[in-house]
Amino acid sequence: MRVRKLIARRIALMIFVLWGIITITFIVARVIPADPIGSILGPQAPPELVEKLRKEWGLDKPLYQQYFDYIINVLHGDFGKSIKTNRPVLEDLKQFFPATIELATFSLIIAVLIGVPLGILSALKKDSAIDYLSRMFALTGVSTPVFWLGLVLLYLFYYKIQIFPEPGRLSVGVQPPDPITGMILLDSLLRGKFDVFLDALKHIILPSIVLGFYNSAYIMRITRASVLEVISQEYVRMAVAKGLRRRKVILKHVFRNAMIPIITVIGITYGSLLEGAVLTETIFAWPGLGRYATQAFLSLDYNAVVGATFLIALVYSLVNLVVDVLYIYIDPRTRGALEG
Amino acid sequence: MKTNKIITMLIKNEKLIELWRHPNGKIGIIISVVLVLMAVFAPLISPYDPNYPDTANRLAPPSIKHLLGTDQLGRDILSRIIWGSRISLSIAFLAVFVTSVIGLVVGLVSGYYGGKIDTLLMRITDIFMAFPRLVLALAFASALGPGIYNVIIAISIVYWSFYARLIRGVVLQIRNELYIQAAKAVGASDVRIMFRHILPMVTAPLLVQATLDIGGTILLASGLGFLGIGVQPPTPEWGVMVSEGRRFITHEWWVSTFPGLFILIATLGFNLLGDALRDVLDVKLKR
Amino acid sequence: MTCLEDILKVNNLTVSYRTLRGKVKAVENVSFNLGKGKILAVVGETGSGKTTVGLAILRILPPNAVIEKGEIWFNGKNILDLDEDAMRRIRGKEISIIFQEPKITLNPVLKIGEQIAEVPIEHLGLDKKEAYRLARMMLERTGVPDPDRVMNSYPHELSGGMAQRVVISIAMILRPKLLVADEPTSALDVSVQAQVLDLIQELVRETGTSVIFITHDLSLAAEIADEILVMYYGKVVEYGDVFEVFKSPKHPYTRALLNAIPRIGFRGRLKSLEEMINE
In chain C, which residues have their Cβ closer than 8 Å to the Cβ of A246? Predict the structure, then answer.
C-alpha cells in the first residue's frame, strides 16, 4: 500500500515536470527569439509571405493564447511542420527516434558491462595496480570530449586500420528490414535476416563504444565508490563475524546494497547517452533524433526544435521514472516504518 | 608587497599543502595553473597572431616553424589553441561563478525557509533537470543567438539547478543543528544566521563542485562550439576548431586532434583538482 | 588465575594500527584468562584498546591492523595461527560478537528472519525451513513480541531495543562457547538497557557461555561481571576478581575511575585524574 502511494506521488511529479518541459520548450521557441520567421526567411522575404507564415504559425495571436494553443497541440502530438523536411515534425520524430534509442541502449549495455565489473574489481582490490589503472581510465574517460573521441577512433579504426565500416547504420546497398520496432538490430533478428543483423552490428559497435566511453568511466567510478562505502559498513563486518563464507558475504551483503545507488546512476547515464547521441550521431552519420535536433537548432527550424527537445526530455523523464520506481522496490528503507 | 602577503598566506595554508601532496592534486594544480597562465598571458606567449593566414603554409604538418601545424587557412594551430584557452576558461569560470551565486541564493532560501517556497523551488529545479544538459544548453543557446555571453547564459541555465540542490542539501543537514537553534534563540536575524553560520559550512562542497564543473563546462561549451552553436568561427574556440578540422581528418589529422586533446587535458586537470579538493576538504557529496 | 576450565587464554597480545602518522599501538601486552561460564568485564575509556581486544579474538580487525605478537588460546589451539577458513568456522558458532549500535549491525535491505537464519544454515547445514523455525524460536526466547511479524520486517522498522534482541538472537542461536559483547547497551535508552542486560545474563547462564563484556561504565561492570580487566592506553592496569578490585584497587587509574562514579549525597569537589594519580 505504501509502495503504491509512493509510486502515485512519483507519477504526479512526472506530470508536473512534463508541463514544465512543455513550458520551457515554448519559451525557447516562441518567447526568446525576437523574430522567428524573419530569422528563417531572411530580410529579403516578401512581406506577404512573412504575414502568411505568421498567421499559419499563430504568431499574430497574443502570447498567452499562443501558449494555450501550444499546450493543446503538443498533447496531441502536433508540433507543426518542419521547415527543412516539409513534413509534420511528428513524422520526422517517428522516423528518427528508434535509431537513437537503439544506439543509446546499445551504448548503455556496453557502458554497464565495462563499468560495473571494473568498478567492483577496483573496489575489492583497492590500491592495487588494477585499481590504479582503472581509476586512471575512469578519470580520463570522464574528461574526454565525445565528439573528438569519435573523430579520432573513426580515423584510426575506419580509415587507417580498417576494422570498422563506414559511418552510418548499414553499408551502402544493404536494405534495412521492414520495420517492426524501427531498430534495425531487433527487426533483422525478428525477420530472420541475419546478414543484415551482422552488418548493422558492425556499424553500431564503434559509435556505441564512443558514446559509451564516458558513461562506462562514470559508472565505474560510482560503482567503485558504492562498493567501498558498503564494505566499510558495520553490517558487513557483522556478516563476517557470523562466519559466513567470503563469497556469500560479498554477493548477499555487499552487492545487494552496493547496487542500489548504481541503479539510479544508470538512469542518469541514459540522459547522458541521449545528449552524447547528439554529438555522436553527427560524426557517425547516424540518422537519429540527435542529428535531427542539431540540424533543427542550426537552421532555426523551431517546430522541429520543439518536437525534438520535447521528445528527448520526455524519454529522459520516463527513464528516470522507471528507475525511481525500481528504487522504491529495491530499497526497503524508502518505504518508511511499519504501520501499527 | 600585497602579493607577498598573499603568497605567504597561500603557502602557509595547510590545506593547500595537503592538496599539493595529493597525487591527483599535484597534477591538477599544475595543469590548471598552466592553463590559467596560458589564457592570461596569451598575447605574450602566442607565437603567431591566431587569425593570421599564412596562405603559403596551409594545412602544414607539425614542424619547428609551426609546432602543432596549421589549419586550412594557414593559421598556426598552437597560437589558436593558446588564444582559445581564453575563451574556454572565461566561459567556464564565468558560467560556474554565475551558477554558484544563483544556486547559493536559491539553495539557502529553499533549505532554510522550507515549506511552500522550498517545494516550489525544488519543483522548478526538477523541470530544468528533466532535460539532458547538452540538449537544454543547445536549445537556449540557439534561441539566444550566437556569441560568447549567450553561451554563458545558456550554460548557467543548465547548471544552476544542481547547485541549488547541493546547497539546499547542506542547509537541510545543518539547519537542525543546535548552534543554529541557539543563534535563533538569541534573536539573530535570518539573514545573519545564513551568512555567519550556514555559509561557512557550504563553502567546502561548493568549491569542490565548482572545480569539477569547470571541467564539465569546458566539455559542454566545446560541444556547443563543435555543433556550431554559440561561439562562431573564426573565433578559436577549441570545439569550433575540432569541427573545422573535421573535413581534413583523413590526411591532416592535426587540425582536429590537437584542439580536442587540449579540451581533454583541461577537463582532466580540473577534474583531478576537484577530486583532490574533495579528498582534502573531506567533503562527502551526495551520491 | 589459570585453571583447567579456562575457555580462553590471552597471552601478551599486542596490536598496532598502521595510520598516516605511522604505527600506533592500540593494545600492548594484554594477558588474561576466562573461565567457563564466567563473565569478564573489560573496562576502559574510548581509545583504551578494549574494542581492539574483542575484535582480535574474533580476528575481524580492520585491514590496517597488525597483530605484533601474542597468542589467543581457544579450544586448545592458538587461533591466531589458524587459517582463515578454520577461523571462519569458529565465528558465529563457537565465538560470537554483538556490537554497540544494533541497527547498523543489521543489513538494511534484508529481512530479519533471513539475517538470523543464515547462521545455522551456514554452520549446521540446516535447510531454510528448519533454520527459520530455529530463528523464530530464538526471537521468542529473547523476548521479542510478535516474532512472526519481526521475522518479516526490515531493520529500520524496529526500535533500538528490539534490534538489539535480534542481534543477541543471531549471536546466541548456536550457543557459542564465548560471547564478546562490545558495549551492547550503550546506545540504548536507559529503560531498555536494564532489560537487555538481564536478557544477556539469563541467556549465558542457560547456555553456559563465557562472556567478555566490554564497557566504559564501571558500575555496569560491577553489576554483571565475575572478573574485571581495566585498560588504560592499551595496557592492562588492573585484573582480578571484581570484588577484590573494587575493595582494594592497586592502580591509581582504577582508583580514579572508582572515585568518579557519581554517588548520591556526595558533597565537595570531584578530584581530577591527575590530582588523584599524584596523590
Answer: 88
